[in-house]
Amino acid sequence: MEVKILSRKLIKPSIPTSQKNIKVSFIDQLAPTEYSGWIFYYPVAKNASDDTTNIESSNRQKQLEKSLAETLTIFYPLAGRYSKDECLIECNSEGVVYLETRVGAQLARIVHGEPELLHLLVPEDEEVGSFGNGTAIPVLALQVNVFECGGIAISVQIFHGIGDGFTLAAFFDAWTKTSRGAVGEINRLSFELGSVIPARSSQEPKSTPRTKKVVTRRFVFDGTSIKSLKAKVGGTKTRVELVSALIWRALIGVSQAKHGYLRAYQLVQPTGLRRKIGLPESDNAFGNFFTLSTALFLPGQSKMELHDLAGLAGDAIRNTLASCKEAMLAGEEDFFRVVDKLFAEPGERSVDEEVDFYAITSLCRFPLYEADFGWGKPVWVSTYDKPREVANLFDTKCGMGIEAWVRLDEQDMLHFQQDKDIKAFSS
């Protein structure tokens, strides 16, 4: 599939801002040093003629640029640069990276189709980095892809070292509301988290491990499958707990097949902390405010039934939130020590070569399918290939099912796809 870049530019705030620089927090310092985000897919109007399609596509692109510039006056840190040396965002209004492309294919080929092509719709890291100066890098990058049919796919990426999924979703929601003239409905974030839980000079930014020959596959657990899973397992487990447990059990089986025996296996779950640990300043804060919850399967001690694994996964999150809340009440130093330990725990255990681990991030309940620029809601929201082993869970468009984007070593994926429950409950 040919994707031709038509333009590369920086979009600056429509009104130049003179704002103070934004301090990052110590959780920002612990976050992965990579760009992360999503792709939103919008079809052209049904039964539109070629001429109408071309006009509509051109108008959409102009509307996107104008509303983006206006949105950046509110989310002004995203138009700045992240300074690695100073641990802050320079709010200099240099602009966000903005690419426009022409895709030599129909949108229908991509939507629910070929996940291995989706990285072509996202700016390459080197492309984004070329707009920085080495020590100060762009924090937001966008690529607007126009298909032969006139449909558009918009990819949005944030540098994870300055913001999490909540931050990115809030920005994208604000952009869509600005585009359709609903500026008064925008959720305006606070930029003070770095002052509440300040960065630590001793903290080294975490580099993101890269894994070679990783393949991505999308497994859809529709509403009917989720109901069947709940009926099989019983109890009150959530759909995220059940799907996470099913993936985890399949991965334990992959490890057993590869090594010839059952091994300890960690399930790492990034866990949002906003509105959950008694820090009101974080409720609407720009930045990273999450930690890691780690569930541990131990051969001979843990059961492999889905109900039990789902319980371990859910308990890990509940225990993490309780620990963070208790530490927050005790003071900043206690909170720092607890969160730092939670981030370090999976890696420390994995020093032992007999312990495996895998991370699953859930974006379920994020209102991504509400992203309407004024020409309708997206027909699909996806992630894309990443060169490391991690899974993302998304709502299906109807909100009842889950799309699981699983990334694994090529050989491991072959085994994973043959798991009886993966085959039985997903498509």
Q: Please, could you describe this protein's structure?
A:
There is one protein chain. This protein has 427 residues and is of the alpha+beta class. 34% of the residues lie in helices and 24% in strands. It is built from twelve helices and 16 strands. Strands 1-6-8-9-3-14 form a six-stranded mixed sheet, with helices on one face. The protein has a six-stranded mixed sheet with strand order 10-16-15-13-11-12, with helices on both faces. Strand 8 and strand 9 (152-159) form a beta hairpin. Helix 2 (50-71) crosses helix 5 (165-179) and helix 9 packs antiparallel against helix 10. The longest helix is centred in the C-terminal third of the chain and has 25 residues, at 306-330. It is globular, with a radius of gyration of 22 Å. The two termini are 25 Å apart.
Strand % is: 15-25%
Q: Give the N-terminus to C-terminus distance in angstroms.
A: 25 Å
Q: What's the total number of strands?
A: 16
What is the spatial order of strands in the main beta sheet?
Answer: 1-6-8-9-3-14
The count of helical stretches stands at 12
Order of helix and strand elements from N to C terminus: EEHEHEEEHHEEEHHEHHEEHHEEEEHH
Rg value: 22 Å
By secondary-structure content and strand pairing, the structural class works out as alpha+beta
Entry keywords:
six-stranded mixed β-sheet; 16 strands
Summarize the structure.
With 427 residues, the chain is of the alpha+beta class. Helices cover 34% and strands 24% of the residues. The strands form three sheets. Strands 1-6-8-9-3-14 form a six-stranded mixed β-sheet, with helices on one face.
